[in-house]
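Lecture 7 notes: from sequence to structure.

We start with a single chain of 84 residues. Read the sequence below before looking at the structure.
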Amino acid sequence: MKHSNIVSQQKHIEDFRTKDGLLTKLRPGDRIRLEYPHGGSSVGVVDEHTADFSVVWIHLDHGQGRTMLLADDQIRIVKQPSAS
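Now the structure, written as tokens:
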């Protein structure tokens, strides 16, 4: 992969956590990729969140179910292009 492609892709990465760690930038319907500390990843759609944004539920693609994301989880959140 060329360096310019890597730089271009990195510009699309958003940090969805606020300074206090809350997930207030995530909204139902957002497509995201969860990148786990061990190197694995999952893709899915934000389903819902608690009123204080400390917990977000994600419907994972390919029948992987629904997962809960806590504000203090050490998981990188990368926005994905919307499915059109």
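The CA atoms of residues 49 and 66 lie 13 Å apart. Keep this in mind for problem set 3.
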